[in-house]
Every structure is written in structure tokens, then in C-alpha cells.
Amino acid sequence: xxxxxxxxxxxxxxxxxxxxxxxxxNTRSYTxxxxxxxxxxxxxxxxxxxxxxxxxxxxxxxxxGAWRPVEVxxxxxxxxxxxxxxxxxxxxxxxxxERYRIRAGEAGAAGSTPVLxxxxxxxxxxxxxxxxxxxxxxxxMVTAR
Length: 145
Prior knowledge:
Strand order of the largest sheet: 1-2-8-4-5
Helix content: under 10%
Strand content: over 45%
Structural class: mainly beta
Number of strands: 10
Distance between the termini: 29 Å
Number of helices: 1
Radius of gyration: 16 Å
């Protein structure tokens, strides 16, 4: 999995696009892979953290071309793979590229933080190792104000 870095600002500017390229050169097919996003809590002037730290993340639906909202989990711990659901299949020796965009709202946190991007095998059993449940991970630095 790879991602192209982008920078975003808290001022109302255009969203910054990035892609996630998923290549399955593994020895098995996946029945349900899902890209999940998480960032740590950032400080705001008011001291509270707005939903998704004030960032808006969207995924482009390749069938319609529409941008659909994507959840960004804001927490300082990592959620285990078996708590996620959904995802799409990925056969052996195949690849896909997904387009996303992120922007910071006018209200929200200030500063920089990485967005953790994990490719989660949502069909992996609860007893699966972390490497099996999360076969790939990377991060993307975002900046607001």
C-alpha cells in the first residue's frame, strides 16, 4: 500500500487529493479488505476536539464519480482489526487504486498530525495475528492552520 502525501489548510480551500494503491502479491486472496483511517486528538483553542479533528475525508466512488464521506477515527489507541466490518475482495496478483481527498474545516484543530492508514482484513478471525488482520499500513501528514 502506498499513499501520496498532501497538505491541507484550515482556511476554506480545495480539498487535497491522494491515492491508495493496493497490490496483492500475496499467496492468498482476500474476501474483505477495507482502508481505515485514524489520527490522534489535536488541540483546539477551546480545548475540545471536534469530530474527525475538523477534517473532512471523502472517497471517490469509481462507479458514479461521486465523493462519499469516510470516517476518520480520532483516538490515541489503535482499534483491533476484528472490530471493523465491510470491505471489498482483492484476488491474488491483482491491484487497485482508490482516490481520496481531505480538507480541514474552518473550525477545528490547529497543527500537524499523521493520519494512520491501515488496510484491514475484516474477514480475519479475532485470533488472527496483527500482520494477518492488518496486512499493510502507512501514514499521511496533514496540517491545519
